[in-house]
Amino acid sequence: MKDQHVHHFEHTDVKVGVYVCHCGINIASKVNVHEVVEFAKNLPNVTVATEYKFMCSDAGQDIIVQDIRSGKVNRVIVASCSPLMHEITFRNATQHGGINPYFFQMANIREHVSWVTAEKEDATVKAKALVAAAVHRVSKHTSLEKKYFPVNPNVLVVGGGIAGIQAALTIANAGKKVYLVEREPTIGGHMAKFDKTFPTLDCAACILTPKMSQVRSHPNITLWTYAEVENVSGYVGNFTVQVKHKKRYINADTCIGCKACVDACIGPENIPDEFNEGLSYRKPVYMPFPQATPSVVIIDENSCYHFTKGGCPPDFSSKNGHLSPQLQSLLRRANECFELRDFQETLKLTKEILKSSPEHQETLFLHAQTLYQLGMINEATEVMRNVMVKERCVAACPKGSVDLYQTEAISEIQVGAIIIATGFKTFQGERTTQYGYKRYPNVFTSLEIERLVNASGPTGGEIVLRDGKTKPKSVAILHCVGSRDLHSNRYCSRVCCMYSLKLAHLIKERTGAEVYNFYIDMRTPGKGYEEFYEKLCHENVHFIRGRAAEVTDWVLSKAELGKLVVRAEDTLLGMVRRVPVDMVVLSVGLEPQTDAEEVRRKFNISCSKEGWFLERHPKLAPVNTFTDGIFLAGACQGPKDIPDTVAQAGAAAAEALALIDIGYVEMEPNTAFITEENCSGCRICVALCPYTAITTDPVKLISVVNPALCKGCGTCVAACPSGAAQQNLFTDEQIFEEIEGVLEYV
Amino acid sequence: MQQETPKQIRFVGKLDPDFVQKMWRGWKKVKFEEEMDPQFAEKVASYPGCNTLFDCIQCGTCSGICPMGSFMEYAPRKIVGMIRAGFKGEVLTSYTTWLCASCYACTVECPKNIKITDIMYALKQLAIKEHMHPRRLPIPVLARQFFEIVKKFGRNNEGKVVINMYFRTNPLLPLRNLIMGIKLYLRGRIAFTQDKIQNIPQLTKILNTVKM
User: Fold this and answer.
1) pTM, whole model, 2 decimals?
2) Residue A471: closest CA among A432, A511, A509, A428
3) Which of A541, A650, B95, B193 is the most exposed place for a label (fewest CB within 10 A)?
4) How far apart are the CA of A196 and the nearest CA of chain B, in angstroms?
5) How many CA atoms lie within 13 A of A429 on its CB side?
6) Quick one: A425-591 is in which CATH superfamily?
7) Which of B64, B70, B78 is opposite residue A549, by nearest beta carbon?
């Protein structure tokens, strides 16, 4: 496309140049290069055959360029290393010489021959065969062009934790439009729950909330909370994403977060607060936490009376006085019948009352309730509409933002790149039964303690036992719960040692309690982490090297009475110890999100065995996935602390920017194509294609390959019963010619 | 191996015998490489289920949970560590393996799924094979006697096992437990008549197949 001097040669005009590389001694020590060159000279169409010490060097490439320019060759074979190493190098050289780069073929005589063959003679024979195969094949090569596709400049970030926030802000600051989709009612993720961050002990909220509000106010960021990605289609540079806005029952655009509805709500107040890990309670309408972004309340449909009982119970107190004693007694009887679950009788009585006093609310309400219990939900709703009192939140809202009849909405957006930052979940403490989480009340998980030590937490920063008032005098922190354990997770969760040290410090500081750390290995690799560990040693925190065997309330001495006993071997001293404590903290590990598999499928990326999203290369492409245009950030790729998460989010943002900034994507032409006249429209390839690149033409009823999606895996080519599916650079003709080349000279 | 005895250490003045004893103990704590058996770990690991011992991260869960741990001279974690280091003599002569009650608590709790109880059995077998087990400890004798009787008759006989064990370990002990023995006999807990299974040759064949 870019090169103006591309000549197209006829097959009859084939002039092959064979260049055999010594690769220092890598090839030459096993393969008799000179013999291969002499052999190549006698192959059909070969006009030039030569050898060189390093073909990939500038001088080596120059030989190829000069030979092409002087008209000696128009097909190039380099017998050297693997295509992964240097195919691009030699293709560029071929193009530089003035012919189509796909008139080049590589014969791998290093990885496939010299490195793996024991005998010199065998190696030379095999090298000859491979060179012959390449010479045969290259004569069937055709001129191909790279394909270019435009890229949509918008970016979608999935997940609004610290990783998503960082990635979104970086891209938005570069002037690109970002959609940030978060499935919880607020962004902030796990970091918003923390009090302090290790090792500097700076307050998590102080460094996170400015970023959160920046996201909210940034003109380039469209923030959608309580929304989930429903469907992703398209390909790199051109994704179409459907985002489902879940029912929040509040108009998020008009809500100002005044919490008048929360004050007015008369719903149950005993619903465990998810944000506080169930340590406090909330109403059905609530703000997740004071600094929630966006500052919008949410109504929980599982507990709100509107959804569970058909409406707020009306206020009866003032109306009863107007009723005649006869009606009152009828009402009492109706109530009693309702209590006794005699709904037919209740219905009869309420109808009787309604005849004489049609506006009476309690009766209407009872009537509706009865209908509801009898399963006549539509009728019940109809009656409830007549109850004069509106839902309390609706009445209290100054902006009219409460919308109890909200429905799910779907937005469809076009983006060029996607960053996945869906984060992690913590290990469930009850899965390690020997530590008695949920069996003994004073066994906590580390996330619960994070909330307890947090100044905006349920106790205002007081560390107390489950009874809500007693301060612990001794605390045991058990490391590696749900990590390094074949019963749960094999891997090390990487952050637990450090956050356990942080919690040990905070507990020591706030309560002055004796803190015992039971650890297997203390892992503090990071800037300032080891120094933090040293600091803790100076603070007289006890470190016992030994995984806690069990937590029990089985008492063996007077000192252990009423306490939890942690039994563990102090492996450094070789003695079993029983440590009585008031509070046990389980340093739970990190796990992939429960629906990671579902998300993986949605975005067509890969998961590792444990369920973490898989990067393309652990070292050289840590934020890329195997799907082009989709990048990873943060703990969804593996356990990570905040500094690493932020760094990775920045890297993912840079990769996404690199993709969208250039404006187009370049595609190798080795894609599949369908020969129209051969295709019978059986659709076998449609179902098999792992990249959903093949569709059926609705008019011709044959398969069509989208070259932008095709990765050139060849699955359709192998499966096609009529041979209609073919692949550029791997046509049947080329493959057969290659095989013949091998067989002819072995 | 050159191992100096405390007598060769020169001291100025009179030697305190207590001090010498402590010195001697301290000296014995140095383990020379030539005293080790580098193949010992491989040997133990070759027993079925025992190659898991290389997964050990020395976390101490097994020792912490072991109900017999406080009676052992080397707790299970140490045993695994010593096997890997090649402390063949110490491991095979120790009481630890024989005190293992096979409750499998360690196997259940081990975060690396190491079959510690199986390793204990392997060590018992090895100790007997190498004649290194503690001779007058009743546990290995009891195990051997139990096996001999079952091998011969196909069924166990408590009375016989107990008597055989006592005569091979401490012949005076039965006198002390005589009354308990009589009580057990009266309640039918100990029988002196031998039960047999019907087809003993077949059992012998099975045991020969597994090379017992």
Assistant:
1) 0.78
2) A511
3) B193
4) 29
5) 25
6) FAD/NAD(P)-binding domain (3.50.50.60)
7) B64
